[in-house]
Task: inverse folding
């Protein structure tokens, strides 16, 4: 029985089932905080503790899901291509805005965390927080951070930005749909995009584009920032 | 489906290869994404060849993060010991990023529109 609970079949089935339940819960309640990823973590971690399955076993048995992160990042190239029509005449401003935003994002989170006593491991895990999870995880791995921590930080960043973003952008007085969509996607990746879509189709599309550009910019920027500090 | 999967894996592999040759500066998957984008843009690949696979694996990407995210169970202490550094770092930095990106885009857009009106 114990072997069965630790099997690849059971654990994979469990992850898919829990995730589906998370999606159901999110769609039913429409509460931004109830991200399926968060629900899955909150259900799976107590289950693993309760059944005495250590994390290494769980990770080994479900590693096919983790492998899929790579191909899904590559596939984002297609998503980016699909949205290319929206940026006519805005290429320079979009690239400049995301470039500076990426720098500000990394430097500010690293400096604040350092000031409040974080160590190098934590800072490397925090640096890619504004980037979509699969890219963030590979960046954290590269720069000596902890992928599990980064995954959590990315979710926190996404939930926070998604929740406050639309209100904050209105307060700042931004009028341009492109500026609003770009800010949502660059600061809070897919969760920012989900909220940007509620603001309008153009905001949503630009926000999706911002996820990809932010990912690429941040990948280049992190080694630079590490070198600077 | 097989052709699409092959193309995605091919670009992933090329990305990893380039990443290796460049000394690991960028993750292979990110390089693969850039290469796929460029190949589509310069029409070396038909979008239809990858559409089905690419949309299906990007649609529910959050599922693929679950194994990594559950790893948090190993780091509960790190998070609780550094709660404020993490919480304030993320929230303030997210707001700053949002403001910077929106501000620059809005400014540059306005300036361009003004120039167009003058002409």
Result:
């Amino acid at each position: 029985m114990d072997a069965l609970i630790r099997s690849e079949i059971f654990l994979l089935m469990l992850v898919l089932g829990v995730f589906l339940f998370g999606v159901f819960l999110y769609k039913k309640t429409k509460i931004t905080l109830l991200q399926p990823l968060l629900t899955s973590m909150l259900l799976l971690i107590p289950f693993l503790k309760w059944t005495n399955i250590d994390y290494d076993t769980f990770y080994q048995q479900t590693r096919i899901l983790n492998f899929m992160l790579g191909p899904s990042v590559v596939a984002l190239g297609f998503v980016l291509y699909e949205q290319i029509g929206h940026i006519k005449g805005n290429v320079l401003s979009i690239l400049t805005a995301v470039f500076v935003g990426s720098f500000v994002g990394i430097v500010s989170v690293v400096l604040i965390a350092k000031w409040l006593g974080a160590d190098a491991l934590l800072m490397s895990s925090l640096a890619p927080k504004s980037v979509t999870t699969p890219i963030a995880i590979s960046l954290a791995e590269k720069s000596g951070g902890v992928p599990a921590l980064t995954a959590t930080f990315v979710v926190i960043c996404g939930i926070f930005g998604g929740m406050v973003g639309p209100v904050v952008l209105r307060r700042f007085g931004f009028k341009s749909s492109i500026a609003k969509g770009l800010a949502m996607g660059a600061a809070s990746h897919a969760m920012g995009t989900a909220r940007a879509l509620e603001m309008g189709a153009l905001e949503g599309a630009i926000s999706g584009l911002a996820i990809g550009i932010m990912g690429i910019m941040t990948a280049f920027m992190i080694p630079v920032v590490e070198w600077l500090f | 489906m097989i052709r699409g999967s092959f193309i995605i894996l091919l670009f992933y592999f090329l990305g990893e290869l380039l990443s290796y040759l460049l000394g690991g500066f960028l993750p292979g998957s990110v390089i693969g994404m850039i290469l796929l984008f460029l190949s589509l843009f310069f029409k070396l690949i038909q979008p239809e060849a990858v559409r089905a696979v690419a949309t299906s694996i990007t649609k529910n990407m959050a599922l693929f993060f679950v194994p990594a995210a559950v790893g948090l169970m190993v780091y509960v202490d790190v998070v609780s010991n550094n709660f404020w550094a993490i919480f304030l770092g993320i929230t303030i930095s997210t707001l700053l990023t949002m403001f910077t990106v929106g501000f620059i885009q809005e400014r540059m857009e306005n300036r361009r529109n003004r120039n167009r009106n003058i002409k």
